[in-house]
UniProtKB/TrEMBL annotation, chain A:
<feature type="domain" description="YdbS-like PH">
    <location>
        <begin position="244"/>
        <end position="313"/>
    </location>
</feature>
<feature type="region of interest" description="Disordered">
    <location>
        <begin position="422"/>
        <end position="441"/>
    </location>
</feature>
<feature type="transmembrane region" description="Helical">
    <location>
        <begin position="55"/>
        <end position="77"/>
    </location>
</feature>
<dbReference type="InterPro" id="IPR005182">
    <property type="entry name" value="YdbS-like_PH"/>
</dbReference>
<keyword id="KW-1133">Transmembrane helix</keyword>
<keyword id="KW-0472">Membrane</keyword>
<dbReference type="Pfam" id="PF03703">
    <property type="entry name" value="bPH_2"/>
</dbReference>
<feature type="compositionally biased region" description="Basic and acidic residues">
    <location>
        <begin position="422"/>
        <end position="434"/>
    </location>
</feature>
<dbReference type="InterPro" id="IPR014529">
    <property type="entry name" value="UCP026631"/>
</dbReference>
TrEMBL record, chain B:
<feature type="domain" description="YdbS-like PH">
    <location>
        <begin position="83"/>
        <end position="161"/>
    </location>
</feature>
<dbReference type="Pfam" id="PF03703">
    <property type="entry name" value="bPH_2"/>
</dbReference>
<keyword id="KW-0472">Membrane</keyword>
<feature type="transmembrane region" description="Helical">
    <location>
        <begin position="61"/>
        <end position="79"/>
    </location>
</feature>
<feature type="region of interest" description="Disordered">
    <location>
        <begin position="1"/>
        <end position="21"/>
    </location>
</feature>
<feature type="compositionally biased region" description="Low complexity">
    <location>
        <begin position="9"/>
        <end position="21"/>
    </location>
</feature>
<keyword id="KW-0812">Transmembrane</keyword>
<keyword id="KW-1133">Transmembrane helix</keyword>
<dbReference type="InterPro" id="IPR005182">
    <property type="entry name" value="YdbS-like_PH"/>
</dbReference>
Amino acid sequence: MTAPPEAPEAVTERRLHPVTPFRRAWAPVAVLAGWAVHDLDQAQRQLARLTTTTLLLGLAVLIPAAALYGFLTWWFTHYSVTDTELRIRTGLFFRRTAHLRLERIQAVDVTQPLLARVAGVAKLRLDVVGTDKKDELAFLGAGEARSLRAELLARAAGIAPEAAAGVGEAPARHLLRVPPGVLAVSLLLTGATWGTLLAAVAVPALLWPATHSLWTVLATAVPVAGAAGARSVGRFVGEYDWTLAESPDGLRIDRGLLDRTHETVPPGRVQTVRIVEPLLWRRRGWVRVELDVAGSANSVLLPVAPRAIAESVVARVLPGAAVPPHAALSRPPRRAGRRVPLWWRGYGLAVTPEVFAARHGLLRRSLTLVPHAKVQSVRLTRGPWQRALGLADVRVDTGANRTVTARQRDAGEAARLLRDQAERSRTGRRDAGPDRWLAGG
Amino acid sequence: METGSPHDTGTTGTPAGGAEPVWTGLPRGLLRMRRMLLVVWTGLATVAAGVLPGLFAGPAWAAFALLPPAGLAWGWVMLERNWRSWRYAERADDLLLTRGVLWREETVVPYGRMQLVEVTSGPVERYFGLAGVQLHTAAAATDATIPGLDPAEAERLRDRLTELGEARSAGL
């Protein structure tokens, strides 16, 4: 499955898996089938009108044309890996050549939709800084996708090119697996699920006295309840069997019940980490960990885990950083309550030698950590009402287009924070790891 | 890479107030340009507010024409206050920028974080001999724009920022 070792000059071009032309073949069939099921009578009448000859003639034209198009697109799509780039050449009429710089790769995901799992193929998706959509190679053989991912990550990490081709999958050390039971319970305990369920009960209860029409009530209740169910079930299916492993390439995430996804988060690419603690999870001490990588915002690192375990995982993503405990977070001064009543109690801030950590949210607490080395700029903002109370906000901008705000701080403290944070992010950056994390030693 | 003198940056721990950096304001030409634009637009608005109601609703309604000049008087003062609030300072390792009267904002952009420095100048700005400098970092939220500068100063700033940015550059 793996490519032959490359000559130093010539670059071997490889093709996608031969199953690729069929990837969209099911679409017209599905449309036809859907139409036939939707309107059985009509379909039968139409079929009866068709004579065998027209049917055969139609098929004789359509099938070879579709097959030829599929074959040609497949034939003209090539990819190759050079020392510095991944090149993708594609397009039958409109040629497109994409050169992806390996050191700019933020993450490589291998995904296997259900049908692809049956066929034994996989999709390779690449996150590169500065591109909106993910470039993807679909489909590759499952084994080939894995070895290509390993090769890309090895080259991005700076391993010598000769060694990179045969380096294979880096050994992974299993960290943790989220049990399905815990995942199910955690989804049941989210406020959004209960909110929609409550709406599904409350709306019909209000409608019934008003209309006394069973159909109206059902027509409103069923979609609302369905939405609540679909959201929870969708998340359950997507986050089922969430496994986290550690390897030299970074953290590996394997997940999914029907569609399997294998993601890798390379070290040093994480811009912010968010630890979210919904109200109903607090008694069990569970948290959810989300992270932002430049190029793709808002991905989940851990759907649910006990706080201690989550903190140890965060320490691996942000090397050397410890999650400040709730007691270590300093609250805004009491007078902030006149600017933001009640909710000011949820605000908090802690600055450790490694991270800038700001918390917000009273019921659903969310603590965001930014390593000093990832800070792009620091801003201090004050509105008129804040100035009257001697308060200010400090905003820290990161490369993942997320701004972390320390809200309603004392004005003097905020001004000091602004100066010190600029200084910290400057020195923090100097000590930060190189882009090619293995070559740097 | 230790080009930043420790004495400059060592003072950052002192309570702020902007005493230690050398602040530069914007040239007076920017205020003149904004006031001229204000006069032109309020002039047009006065004519429209006077003529249209006067023609269609009766002469008394032409009193609406008094509103835009009132706005002009207010804007005349506001523009000056806003113009005064814009200041920037180049420190050893970062650029400071403050602006705003009621909603005050102070931005610190480390030189090593700059991805791109742009100098822009529209036709009206060119007439008044002005050019704007805009800094981009990898974060889109960083809005570090200096709207109107002397073109020579803008180019000096651009070159200096680019040079410092290269010297202190770091990855994402």
